[in-house]
Amino acid sequence: xxxxxxxGAGCLTAPGFRSLAEMLGGGLSPERENKxxxxxxxxxxxxxxxxxxxxxxxxxxxxxxxxxxxxxxGIPFPCTDGxxxxxxxxxxxxxxxxxxxxxxxxxxxxVNNTSPGLFPDTVLNVTAGQTAIYYGxxxxxxxxxxxxxxxVRSLQYAVDLLASENVSHVVVCAVHLAVPxxxxxxxxxxxxxxxxxxxxxxxxxxxxTCIRLSMKTRVNESRADIxxxxxxxxxxxxxxxxxxxxxxxPCRFKIGSxxxxxxxxxxxxxxxxxxA
Length: 276
Hints:
Elements: E1 4-13, H1 20-25, H2 57-72, E2 85-91, H3 96-109, H4 126-135, E3 141-144, H5 150-163, E4 169-176, E5 195-202, E6 211-217, E7 227-229, H6 231-244, E8 252-257, E9 263-268, H7 271-275
Parallel strand pairs: 2-3, 2-4, 7-8
Antiparallel strand pairs: 1-5, 1-6, 4-5, 6-9, 8-9
Helix pairs in contact: 2-4, 5-6
């Protein structure tokens, strides 16, 4: 399989989210229990994003981190070659807040008097669709929902999509949000802490720092060689690694999701030496 490069990243996390060093070292931050598990520090949206405040929280957060990833890679938007850029969103819960609010309105005013503006956000794939519209990404648009393995399987799907000749880049965005309390007892999987992160995957290194990514199956691999983290941390881990990577020190990691025993994600910033 041809190499894949992470050329841009954007990430928003809750205050209680583990740092990169904490994820590498295992264990949780001792202050985590006293910190919010909800994303609070959200940057202002640029004026080019029309009707942004009318979008759901999931769309807003996904749009912001995707824009950051595209800017970091030097890709202008709206994209002139948008048909060559695919969008993959991994989420299990981006639509639950809208479903809850729609149900509240139905109970209060009757099913025939609910707001039609709420209905589109009850569809899980609206986050991927609206985010792609904002940036002119008209390539394949896919939403993956796979419980405790959503992030790792979204990443695998994005890598497979990039291997086709139809696209030159793929944005893979993980949206893990707090579940409304009414749903919590009925969901087998839900995020422990909020995180929304996007990676731009490319077939070639672009200007600036990048990291090579490989998806491997866990065949005869020792678990001792794999850093296992929560699924909602996986794409954020890669995003933080890119942002904290100055290229001065080689780094190679094998990352795995604790809920998925099929794949490992290998990240390597020492690409210039090997690819030369």
